[in-house]
C-alpha cells in the first residue's frame, strides 16, 4: 500500500501512549478544550454522511477510553461514543437513509457498550460538578482570569455533551412524556452554544497551516487526506484507520471547521425542537403536513430519524399509544364522513359491515406508514419512492370503491 511510504510512523492509541506521543493524564485546559472541539467537528462530519473510521475514530482517545486517566477526557470520550451509538441506532431503526446520507458501519470499534448510559451521564455530571466548583466565585486576580475562562469553557463543553447525550437517551424511551423532557434538555444545550462559540480560541489549534511535512505525507496515503481538511494535533491521527478502508473509498472526508461546528449544533437543536412538536398534532392530515414541511427544510439524517421514531414507536403505534388504523378512521370521518363510520349510523353495529371497513382500513395502514416514512428520506430520493407508493394508493382507491 502507498500508505506505508509515509515518512512518519502512524501510531495507534496504545503505541502512542507507549512512545509518549499522547497524554492520558495531566492534560492542560487548552488541550482538553481543543480535543473536545475537534471531536465535535468529527461527530458532525460523520452525521453528514462520512464514515466513522474517517471522522470520530481518527481521535485516538475514543479507541479505548479505559486507558485514559484524565477524568474529564475519559467521561467525554465515553459520552461521544454513546452519542454515536444512540444516533446510529436511531438512524438504523428509522430506516430513512441512503448511502449518501449516513454510514452506520462501526469497523469493529467498541461503542462503549461495556458501560451503561446512566454510568456515562453520571461520570459527565461528576466532572461537570467538579468544574463548576472551580469556576465559582466573583473575586479573581487578573493573573488567574484566563485560567478561569478556560475552566468555564471546559465546563460548558462537558455540560453540553451531557445534555446532548441525555436528550438522545430520552428519545429512546417509549413514553410520549419523554419527548417534552428531551425538548427541555436541548433548550438547555442551546443556551450553552454562544459560550462555546466565544471560547473556541481557548483550545489548542490543529497544525493545518504550519505542518508542511505532514501535509505531504497525508497526501501520499492510501486514502488521500489534505492536511487543511483534517486536524493534525495531539490525540488525532487521520491515517490510523487507513487499513480498515477499501482501496477506493467512495467519499473524501473533510472535517468541518470549529467555527462551523457551533452553527451546525444550533441548527440541529432547532430541528430537534421542531421534532418534539409533532406530538401536539393529533390528526392524520396534520401529521402529513408536518412531515412535508419538515422535509422542505432538508434536515439532517439524525433529525429525520428522530421524527420517524417519535411518530411510530417500536410497537408500531402512533406516539406509542394509538393504532394507525384508528387515526385513519378519524381522518376518514373528518374528510368524507362515510355513514359506516358515523356513530349514529346503524351500520356501525352490523358485524359484516364492520369487518369490511376494518379490513379496508388495515390495508390502508401500510401505505400511509410508507408515505410518512418516504417524507423522512432526503429530498432527492423522495421523488422515486413517491412514484411507487402512488401505485399502492391507486389500488386502495379501487378497493375503496368496492367497500
TrEMBL record:
Location of the NAA35-like N-terminal domain: 25-65, 72-116
Residue intervals of the NAA35-like TPR repeats domain: 274-403
Source superkingdom: Eukaryota
Predominant location: cytoplasm
Signal peptide: none
Subcellular localization, as worded in the UniProt entry: Cytoplasm
Pfam families per the UniProt record, alphabetical: Mak10 (PF04112), TPR_NAA35 (PF25789)
Keyword line: Cytoplasm
GO cellular component: a single term: NatC complex
InterPro entries: NAA35-like_N, Naa35_N, TPR_NAA35
Family membership: Belongs to the MAK10 family.
Record-given protein name: N-alpha-acetyltransferase 35, NatC auxiliary subunit
Amino acid at each position: 500500500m502507498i500508505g506505508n511510504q509515509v515518512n512518519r510512523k502512524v501510531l495507534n492509541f496504545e503505541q502512542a501512549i507507549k512512545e509518549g506521543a499522547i497524554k492520558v493524564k495531566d492534560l492542560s485546559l487548552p488541550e482538553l478544550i481543543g480535543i473536545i472541539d475537534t471531536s465535535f467537528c468529527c461527530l458532525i462530519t460523520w452525521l453528514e454522511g462520512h464514515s466513522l473510521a474517517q471522522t470520530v475514530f481518527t481521535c485516538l482517545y475514543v479507541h479505548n477510553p479505559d486507558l485514559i486517566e484524565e477524568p474529564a477526557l475519559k467521561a467525554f470520550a465515553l459520552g461521544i461514543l454513546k452519542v454515536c451509538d444512540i444516533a446510529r441506532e436511531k438512524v438504523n431503526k428509522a430506516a430513512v437513509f441512503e448511502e449518501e446520507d449516513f454510514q452506520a458501519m462501526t469497523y469493529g470499534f467498541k461503542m462503549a457498550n461495556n458501560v451503561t448510559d446512566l454510568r456515562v451521564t453520571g461520570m459527565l455530571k461528576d466532572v461537570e460538578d467538579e468544574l463548576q466548583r472551580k469556576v465559582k466565585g466573583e473575586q479573581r486576580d487578573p493573573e488567574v482570569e484566563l485560567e478561569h475562562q478556560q475552566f468555564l469553557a471546559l465546563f460548558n463543553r462537558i455540560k453540553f455533551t451531557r445534555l446532548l447525550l441525555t436528550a438522545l437517551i430520552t428519545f429512546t424511551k417509549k413514553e410520549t412524556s419523554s419527548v417534552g423532557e428531551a425538548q427541555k434538555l436541548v433548550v438547555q444545550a442551546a443556551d450553552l452554544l454562544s459560550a462555546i462559540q466565544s471560547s473556541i480560541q481557548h483550545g489548542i489549534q490543529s497544525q493545518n497551516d504550519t505542518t508542511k511535512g505532514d501535509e505531504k505525507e497525508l497526501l501520499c496515503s492510501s486514502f488521500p487526506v489534505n492536511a487543511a481538511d483534517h486536524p493534525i494535533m495531539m490525540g488525532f491521527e487521520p491515517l490510523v484507520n487507513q487499513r480498515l478502508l477499501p482501496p477506493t473509498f467512495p467519499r473524501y472526508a473533510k472535517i468541518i471547521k470549529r467555527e462551523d461546528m457551533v452553527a451546525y449544533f444550533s441548527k440541529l437543536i432547532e430541528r430537534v425542537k421542531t421534532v418534539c412538536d409533532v406530538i401536539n398534532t393529533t390528526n392524520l392530515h396534520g401529521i402529513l403536513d408536518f412531515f412535508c414541511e419538515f422535509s422542505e427544510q432538508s434536515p439532517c439524517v439524525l433529525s429525520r430519524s428522530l421524527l420517524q421514531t417519535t411518530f411510530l414507536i417500536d410497537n408500531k403505534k402512533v406516539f406509542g399509544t394509538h393504532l394507525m388504523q384508528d387515526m385513519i378512521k378519524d381522518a376518514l370521518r373528518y374528510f368524507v364522513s362515510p355513514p359506516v363510520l358515523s356513530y349514529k349510523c346503524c351500520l356501525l353495529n352490523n358485524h359484516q359491515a364492520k369487518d369490511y371497513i376494518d379490513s379496508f382500513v388495515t390495508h390502508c395502514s401500510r401505505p400511509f406508514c410508507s408515505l410518512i416514512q418516504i417524507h423522512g428520506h432526503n429530498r432527492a430520493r423522495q421523488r422515486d419512492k413517491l412514484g411507487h407508493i402512488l401505485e399502492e394508493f391507486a389500488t386502495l382507491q379501487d378497493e375503496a370503491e368496492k367497500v
